[in-house]
Design brief:
This protein is an alpha+beta fold. The protein contains 16 helices and 33 strands.
Length: 892
């Protein structure tokens, strides 16, 4: 018959393509007819009709799932995974092999694993004293567990042993009479070897399936881990016990434990993943660049070719050197361990595609770092994700990020490793090693997905969409051709291939509101993927707190409290002596700038503020200067933002139960507060009840209204990190650009020129990228900067132009010798705030464009903090209660 392959479809009916020849002999003499001796000649067939002959195998419906190919409790194959690993179901089948009736109905003990409703080829061959039946099909139609013992034919098809029958070999000879003459009777004579015979018989009851090696799990072609391939590697925490706390720095959902771009270097017992960011002169096998360790066993497989099991059984073969063997068995449960710990870990999930593999490892327990043995987290799951994008990274790839430009725009960066002397290296040499983190999206599209694990809360999902749309507008305003989109398709948390947004439901607790880690190429700085992790519980909890405090404020519960140490102010400073006593300052002078002189430290010097563009503001260089504006007693003041929210926002959205109706159509909160106001009257008496029946429903109704706004501005901030932007804590001090922002119509909303700022909690935070953010995107993604003519930089509304930048060209170098100057925004970031501390305008949670406004805003925050935290009113407890030190003295 003609050759057929899996994939074709035709009705489940067989038309035989080969028929056994009848063993009837025509006599030379008409009077005599040749016949077998009685009892012989039944079921006798010609060898040549079955030796290396082709037949048709047709499959029907699925009977059961295929053979398990992994130790994982769940397996998912991508659409192209069949070239690496695949499974096929057990199916019905029929064949046109004559006489033997080779069907799934007759032989229930001979399972066939193949594509349903397809056609394969069968080949029959004699092996020893058995008739072997082989299945032949395209590689992708053969389950991968059979590849290990399959034979590749010249046409690329795979030939796989399927089953066999026991046979006996015979010759046929005429019987002779007493005179030695041939008669018309013939007899069969059994032969030991096939070469001596022309015929055979089949024992139909001796059918036997080919014996595949058992427990052949998690076996991959060795070529899949070719050492020339580069893999984007991400290890993230994707599940912890719902009730678990744990150190936030390591045990927050989605926290990235490791990320890099690696190549696999094979050893006898491990695949070692090394970072591609290597010093060129050094060996890549350096321990400090090791990122992941995968335990493996290198193995070949073969069909037994001698003895009674010849052709009938598969065995492992270790005869060749380990690095020449074709297959690798991965022990996923022992990942990152130099000794086997498979009993303590479980492979929960495996996903494979032609350019991707990932696995989830469940660890029964894990000790906290730098903690005692009793500090153990029970039951954590890590997602190890590896994505090969088909590229080989070149040293000159990516956006070179001159060191001088870091004072204008803040991007995360990578540094290419190289040998250099810190004393001798020149700026231009170091600049060539720096790369700014940014996307280089295929088809100019950056797509975001919600995670499978995310909530279905419509308010949260709408906030996600608004944040994506806001950044899409920002990329357009920055002159890029890139679009930012969201997809309704969901992806898994920690998948290195996708930008996955995780909005965790309220049963997942966290000390964080959100964060946005990214996976980057360490050499080019290219952002491969990013994640946004948002805890819905944190938002709802905080908003419920804020709304409750708004209720207290509305009925006058806070105004009854006496805070004498905050009531008196010092001339020129706006702060009380008690305030400084709390700060631990030995105050010898109490007026004007003399208070700075009371601080311990070296003599005061003056420098120009690095964050206020185009202005010269004297700054006192005192190591403890900020203590004059911050109270650290019991850490309470650092929690200001978590305990005091802007009450006018609550009123504007939900109403105040009196003269402000609010924009919400839901009147539950407004009506509740109106009734409570009536109960309390004009003056709240200490100890008076501050609630009515229905309090929970009323607080929830208002909190739900505010959640979307809070989620949106947090997501917009975290998306900025995903796109490569660092914090900008100077946005509040940039008066000229804030006033020039056409999107802001109300002066009180001019909070900051950047969504990457940590804005003051008493003020509405930006819900869309601001002017600094747009110009930063223009710098990194459009390679342009906005400029003004020299002398116009102080104008409120100057005329803008744009200058192109070459890769690696610093902004100052591009503008040198021209009549242009950079339209500079105020910028400072984490190291300026946490370490340098030379500029009071580089501050988190501040407001105001000048130093005076910033200090006034801080004092207002202190008053608000003490007002809302110094007394519980009628609550059983507070999340962040404020305790004042007993040795504090106040002067009146």
């Amino acid at each position: 018959s003609s050759q057929t392959s899996a994939g074709g479809r035709f009705p489940l009916a067989i038309t035989s393509s080969a028929t056994a020849r009848s063993l009837m002999f025509s006599a030379c003499e008409k009077k005599r007819r040749t016949r077998f001796v009685q009892g012989q000649g039944e079921n006798l067939y010609f060898l040549e009709d079955f030796d290396k002959k082709n037949f048709v195998l047709e499959t029907g419906k699925v009977l059961s799932q295929g053979i398990v190919t992994s130790n994982a409790s769940s397996i998912e194959f991508g659409k192209n995974a069949v070239s690496i690993i695949n499974t096929q179901p057990r199916v019905e089948y029929r064949s046109d092999v004559p006489v033997v009736d080779l069907t799934s109905v007759r032989y229930e003990a001979l399972p066939l694993y193949a594509q349903a409703h397809s056609r394969y080829q069968l080949v029959s061959e004699f092996v020893g004293k058995r008739l072997m039946i082989f299945k032949v099909g395209e590689k992708l139609a053969i389950p991968s567990n059979e590849w290990t013992y399959a034979q590749t034919l010249p046409n690329g098809m795979l030939k796989v042993p399927f089953m066999s029958y026991a046979v006996k070999f015979y010759t046929i000879e005429r019987k002779k009479d007493d005179r030695g003459k041939s008669t018309n009777e013939i007899s069969t004579f059994e032969k030991q070897f096939r070469s001596e015979a022309q015929h055979f018989t089949v024992d139909l009851d001796s059918a036997k399936a080919f014996e595949e090696l058992d427990k052949k799990r998690d076996v991959f072609p060795a070529e899949f881990f070719n050492s020339k391939k580069e893999w984007n590697y991400l290890k993230s925490l994707v599940d912890i016990p719902v009730s678990a706390g744990g150190p936030p720095s390591k045990y927050e959902m989605g926290m990235v434990s490791a990320q890099d771009r690696v190549t696999f270097s094979p050893t006898r017992d491990f695949l070692v993943g090394y970072s591609i960011n290597q010093v060129e002169q050094a060996s890549p096998d350096l321990s400090f660049s090791q990122r992941v360790l995968l335990p493996v066993e290198w193995v070949d497989y073969k069909v037994v070719d001698f003895g009674d099991d010849a052709g009938l059984k598969e065995i492992a073969d270790y005869s060749r050197p380990w690095n020449e063997r074709k297959f690798i068995r991965l022990r996923f449960a022992g990942v990152d361990q130099t000794t086997s710990v498979e009993d303590a870990t479980v492979l929960k999930r495996l996903e494979v595609d032609d350019n991707y593999f990932s696995f989830h490892i469940y660890k029964a327990s894990e000790s906290f770092e730098d903690a005692s043995d009793k500090d153990v987290l029970r039951g954590v799951t890590y997602h190890y994700s590896f994505y090969n994008d088909g590229k080989i990274t070149a040293k000159d790839e990516g956006l070179q990020y001159p060191l001088e430009d870091t004072k204008y725009f803040g991007f995360f960066q990578t540094v290419q490793k190289n040998y250099y002397s810190s004393e001798l290296i020149r700026r231009e040499e170091f600049d060539r090693l720096l790369r700014a983190a940014r996307y280089y999206p295929k088809d100019n599209k950056i797509t975001f997905y919600l995670s499978v694990e995310s909530t279905n809360d419509e308010v949260a999902i709408q906030a996600f969409r608004e944040a994506v749309n806001a950044w899409n507008d920002a990329f357009k305003a920055a002159g890029t051709q890139i679009t930012v989109e969201f997809s309704n398709e969901r992806k898994r948390n920690g998948d290195a291939r996708y930008n996955v947004i995780n909005i965790y439901p309220e049963n997942r607790k966290s000390s964080l509101l959100g964060y946005g880690p990214t996976l980057q190429n360490p050499v080019s700085g290219e952002i491969i993927s990013g994640g946004n992790h948002i805890y819905l519980a944190g938002f709802r909890s905080r908003f419920r707190e804020h709304v409750r405090r708004f209720v207290y404020e509305s009925i006058g519960a806070y105004r009854s409290q006496k805070l004498p140490f905050l009531e008196r102010t010092l001339q020129g400073s706006g702060a009380s002596e008690g305030f400084y006593s709390l700060a631990g300052i030995n105050l010898s002078a109490n007026t004007g700038s003399a208070m700075l002189g009371a601080l311990p430290g070296p003599s005061t010097g003056e420098v120009a503020s690095p964050v206020i563009a185009n202005e010269s503001v004297p700054v006192a260089l005192k190591p403890t200067e900020q203590a004059a504006f911050k109270i650290d007693a019991n850490g309470a003041c650092s929690m200001t933002g978590q305990t005091a929210y802007f009450f006018d926002v609550v009123a504007n959205y939900c109403g105040n139960g009196a003269d402000i109706e609010g924009t919400s159509k839901d009147r539950t909160f407004y009506n509740y507060l109106a009734d409570l106001r009536n109960q309390v009257g004009e003056t709240y008496e200490e100890g008076e009840r501050t609630y009515l029946p229905g309090e929970k429903e009323a607080l929830e109704s208002c909190a739900n209204i505010l959640v979307q706004r809070g989620l949106t501005d947090t997501m917009v901030h975290e998306f900025g990190h995903i796109f490569g932007l660092r914090h900008n804590f100077a946005g509040t001090s940039d008066k000229r650009h804030a006033n020039a922002d056409p999107a802001v119509t109300d002066p009180k909303d001019r909070v900051s020129t950047s969504v990457m700022d940590y804005a003051d909690y008493w003020s509405p935070r930006p819900m869309r990228p601001q002017s600094y953010d747009i110009e930063a995107i223009r710098y990194a993604y459009s390679r342009k900067v906005r400029v003004v003519a020299k002398g116009d930089e102080r104008l409120e509304k100057p005329t803008y132009s744009y200058v192109d930048l070459k890769n690696g060209q610093a902004i100052d170098d591009a503008l040198k010798g021209t009549n242009w100057v950079l339209d500079r925004h105020a910028y400072c970031t984490d190291q300026d705030f946490h370490y340098a501390r030379v500029d009071p305008m580089c501050e988190q949670r501040d407001r105001g464009n000048t130093a005076t406004q910033a200090v006034a805003g801080f004092i207002e925050d202190m008053i608000g903090t003490f007002s809302t935290l110094s007394k519980r009113v009628d609550q059983a407890r507070l999340r962040n209660s404020l305790t004042l030190s007993a040795d504090v003295t106040t002067k009146q």
